[in-house]
Structures
1.
Amino acid sequence: MNSDLTHNRRNFVRKLGGLAGLLTLTPGLPSFADDKKYLAPEVSPDEEVTDNEDYWGFIQQAYSVSPNVINFNNGGVSPQPIVVQDALDRYNRLSNEAPTYYMWRTLDEGRESVRLKLADLAGCSPEELAINRNASEALETIIFGLNLQKGDEVVLTKQDYPNVINAWKQREKRDGLVLKFINLDLPIEDNQLIVRKYKEAFTAKTKVVMVTHLINWSGQIMPAALISRAAKKHNPNMQVVIDGAHSFAHLTYKIPDLEGDYYGTSLHKWLCSPFGTGMLYIKQPLIKNIWPLLAPEDPQSPDIRKFERLGTRSFPTEMAIGHAINFHNTIGNERKQKRLHYLKNYWVEKCLNIPGFSTITSLKPEFSGAIATFALKGITPGNLATELFKRARIHTSATVWENIAGVRVTPHVYTPLKDLDRLVSTIQAIAKENNSAAKSSSLK
Ligand SMILES: Cc1ncc(COP(=O)(O)O)c(C=O)c1O
């Protein structure tokens, strides 16, 4: 055996032993400084780890996910690493000692440092970021807060997220906005074609364009910056709203790279922050123009904090975001994106030759990340998802929306390859039975 490999393995096992020791010595309550002890620090910063199962095995140990349910719906909500759960627990226990004292006088002070950490990750000024509960809240703050008139047009796609579409439809009903829907036939491996579709929908009355950076139904990555550029070229005053719910802490980019004016994301998806955490970005000069959903003293203030007047909510939850950022940074966004794409391709490529298998997800890294949606001929998505769970306790998401019908599979950084092998063999078995049942019924 290669001696470097032997050394690395020995080192890895020693670190794993250290982790076990840590867990026994301080059950559930490591100090704040212990965050990094859950990770394998011997990997050098630019080392390629995409298929280094020792490295990812260590990451798996940082989560408390059940081995009895194979969770492939991380796109819905992701689990938190143990360090994040522990931090949340500590903040919660502290808050319960004297809620208003600790939440309003101590933890609330920490929001500014969470904002700084988020700004560092997002690549923007902290003065452009508000912390809230999820992408729906962030995006609806923009949708309902924009000054728009009857007859103003909004360009969006049928494949945008339902909450977002519903919010625009409410403005259509209430304020007489006109919605112009584009229909995307996914997957699309041609950015110019996508941009052309948006451009064709723009008119002199278009005031807003809505862009979903990574489409939840199929995992399609959209050329957000190119669409923003085309919008501004058509009309420099056109407002660009970007839904980053699925791309933040999944793809490697900074929010200003997308060239949008407004951006909303959830942090409980790919960042693995506590449930019910989200973030709103507004380009500095535009903040004063957006009306908050929950009114502060000065709703036209240029201070982004005016969007944080949510009333009482969980401060422990917000404070634990910082620990999720530390965990994410220790892996590194680029490594994470490469691994997620690798996991997706790992199982999809093995399925491509299964009779009746089809996917609406690209295998190319420019157009996809962790998410893939597949179908088996002759089985409804609902029945397929039920079979996967019944046979192998594989939890997925059955998707039927507009021109999309399939089962969405989303692994995460803690997913072992063996779970993906189980997925492949279960799909093979279902397809085999389904194909022979179809053959025998056609012989009758
Ligand atoms: C593309 C997209 N946008 C927005 C949302 C809303 O996220 P949340 O439910 O966290 O508000 C989701 C949720 O899955 C989504 O996939």
Note: Confidence is low (pLDDT under 50) at residues 1-33.
2.
Amino acid sequence: MAGKQVVIIGAGISGLKTASELYKKGFDSCVVIEARDRVGGRLHTVPGYKNNKYDVGASWHHDTLVNGLFLEELSMPKEQRASFVFDDDALVVIDQEKGRIDQDPDMTLEVLMEELLKYNQLQYFEDLDVKDVNFFETIVKYLYERRDLLTDDQIRYIPQLARYMESWHGIDWKSLSSKCLEIAHQGRNAFVLNYDTIVERIASSFPKGWLKLGTEVISVNTEGKKVVVSTSSGEVYESDYVVITIPQSVLAHSLSPTPRKGRIEFTPPLASNIQDAFQRTHYGALGKVIFEFDKCCWSKDRSRAITMAKSNPEIARKVRDAQELNQLVEKLNSDTKYNFKNGESWDFPLFFVNLAKHTDNPSLILLMADPLTTYIESLPEKEKVYDFFKPVVKEVLKAFDCFEPVVTDFEDKLDETSEGPVLKNVLTTKWTQDPYALGAYSACSPGDDPMDLILALAGSETSKVRFAGEHTIMDGAGCVYGAWNSGVREASFIAEKMGKVRS
Ligand SMILES: Cc1cc2nc3c(=O)[nH]c(=O)nc-3n(C[C@H](O)[C@H](O)[C@H](O)COP(=O)(O)OP(=O)(O)OC[C@H]3O[C@@H](n4cnc5c(N)ncnc54)[C@H](O)[C@@H]3O)c2cc1C
């Protein structure tokens, strides 16, 4: 049995930061055990066509006024930090029939969107006991109550624009909590080029020998004075503290006895407040598809676009004729159902990043939410993925002033004379299929309270079993910098308890 001061489970950003801080504080005997054969976890930079680099996990530094990781990056010489660009310019909004409808002087959808978000927020500010409902229901309620103040077009298109929130939370409007909907942006968003620089920097700020890759932790036993951590390859570690940074989705499997990859057996079992809190939390699945072209034949004016799901031409009449809100919710709910068998890309809101605007890379990055993510990530071939998205990609290119048809050349056989865009490669994330991620990050459905799990996992003043990760913190919840903050928090806690004061 190897003796260590601290065992850290998981080498994502929270685990790496914990190790880095412990080393800074004078710890000299720790181990970071990681199931995958790489560090970074949900930060993962991969090569594509012509070795262009893409982040298939996180891409942005959010909340750059308060983001500690971003501020740490800024404090370093430029050549040592990851480049970034601010890409918050106005969103291009595309409808299947109408084409571009952003900044439309009659519909003023952007202004309405702000009003709708404020309407949602006010409901829960004014009365703490208001029942949490899904975002779809809140939108219908808004339309019903404000119908005399909205035009038919506004009633038709605002629900579809509002679905833009799905790409923040990674779940669809009918699963998304209205109470937890709001994203209070603390500063601009910076698109990182690329996160691998940051992961490598933090991973090399503590001894290499601490890292144990390709090793899955299978059990944590806290019955004795020390914590005993066992791995699937038979190693056993004994330590003063263990910091568990595995994703919420993987930790959830410790609640049931069924063996599976990533699952950790706890002896004694996880505390009852942790088990209870898991009943009031969910997990989203943001996914990405990257379309790599041979050259940029479209406009570089705008960074981002959203293609709205198709709207119902009958919706304004139905809203105006409605006698009762609940009936209207039911009616519109069945109007907006889809199934994947005959579903198509215009059933979903999709978010596009025009990478060519800020880099020399002629690629479009699409972001989607669950349940679409789970479906697309299960498709085995890039041809199938492209077939699904072809209609929207065509309209996005049109909205960016490219009217030539897309030619596909996945085998890279065409010469370079074609005038229009030649699609060379399609990359798709696989987070929902990855046993060490099982999706993207924590999310809230109606009735959830994310604070419960955070307090249950991170609130103990005495436990030797510590938790870190994006799901264990309020400041930066779900984000890279939240995970990073949680690593700082746990390292400080352990250092204080073990009498290490150096920082
Ligand atoms: C597609 C996508 C887009 C995103 N976009 C953004 C964004 O733009 N900005 C942003 O701020 N955030 C974004 N996020 C969220 C962000 O990536 C995460 O919040 C953050 O990286 C989580 O870090 P972590 O350390 O908490 O967890 P992880 O990175 O998941 O680290 C946990 C580690 O534990 C390991 N592990 C699991 N089980 C075991 C086991 N039994 N034994 C040993 N090791 C184990 C895993 O392999 C993993 O490496 C995105 C996430 C995804 C998936």
Note: The chain has a mean pLDDT of 96.
